[in-house]
Design goal:
The chain contains twelve helices and ten strands. It has an eight-stranded parallel barrel with strand order 1-2-3-4-5-6-7-8, surrounded by six helices. Strands 9-10 form a two-stranded antiparallel sheet.
Length: 291
């Protein structure tokens, strides 16, 4: 199953207590912004951050950028009130950390609905614990409102007692399981953050690996990472030109009763046409979002 997706090449975390940074984000080239009430906010300013974040989300002042509020977990002092306030602010999505079961999704959705959340506000799930990874399929299918998996690779590496490596071999199994579950239920799946802001080459390589694995985009911790993520996770001009050529050639072949066609010496069948249409649709969505 597949859904029509908006571009999510670059989704930037913004500290919930930093009103200035959230104002600056209105001019950044990010496809999405995660206004964070969890890890980025100290306990003594959680309530203040909630007010800032929800006011900004409700303002609808971020243009075409997708706005997501990351709440605190349901097992914390702030989680339930975060979800209620976020639901009333009506962002594009509410992101729940450390999701480990369908039951957590159901509980969150129940709170959202009771708070009057609009139908279009989706649920995003942080996939960042061993148990969460093992339950990826049930979480993906927990509700039609579930729209996206966000990989929390930093917490995952910690819980696995593994190490951060360039090729990310310790977490490949976890990434793959979430991609499988996400694709099975038509979700967007976003790659985890890259922590070394001084390593531009390493970040670019991480984006390329994420693209190869099948991710739709990458979560980011600093605006300097936006350009590289946007470049890597967008189809290139050459790819789009070739995709259009494939679509036209196959349509002409079909009109002649053929199920395959040669394009630039390569055999093209229906599955290649589906890929081509997806690339063209994404390129058009990116162009529309930037207007």
């Amino acid at each position: 199953m597949d859904k029509t997706r908006r571009p999510r090449r670059s989704v930037l975390y913004m500290p919930g207590s930093n009103a200035r940074a959230q104002e600056k984000a209105k001019s950044l080239a990010a496809d999405g912004l995660i206004l964070d009430l969890e890890d980025a906010v100290a306990p003594d300013v959680k309530a203040e951050a909630r007010e800032i974040v929800c006011a900004n989300a409700a303002s609808k002042g971020y243009g075409n950028r997708e706005i997501i509020i990351r709440v605190n977990g349901l097992d914390t002092l702030w989680g339930r009130e975060d979800i209620i306030a976020a639901s009333k602010a009506a962002p594009d999505a509410i992101l729940l950390p450390k999701v480990e079961s369908a039951a957590q999704v159901h509980e969150m959705e129940k709170i959202m609905v009771a708070a009057g959340v609009p139908k279009q506000t989706k649920i995003w799930c942080m996939m960042e614990t061993p148990l969460g990874i093992l339950k990826a399929e049930e979480i993906a299918g927990a509700s039609p409102r579930v729209d996206c998996f966000v990989m929390g690779t930093s917490d995952l590496v910690k819980d696995l007692q593994a190490q951060h490596t360039a090729l990310r071999l310790p977490v490949l199994t976890s990434l793959g399981l979430c991609l499988l579950a996400g694709r099975a239920y038509g979700l967007t799946v976003l790659d985890g953050v890259y922590l070394d802001l001084a390593d531009d080459e390493g970040f670019h390589s991480s984006c390329l690996q994420g693209l190869e694995l099948g991710f739709d985009g990458k979560t980011l911790i600093h605006p300097k990472q936006l350009a590289s993520a946007n470049e890597v996770f967008a189809p290139s001009e050459e790819e789009v030109t070739h995709a259009r050529k494939v679509i036209v050639a196959f349509k002409e072949a079909e009109s002649q009763g053929k199920a395959v066609v040669l394009v630039d010496g390569k055999l093209i069948e229906n599955l290649h046409v589906e890929i081509a249409k997806s690339k063209v649709a994404m390129a058009e969505a990116i162009a529309a979002a930037s207007e």
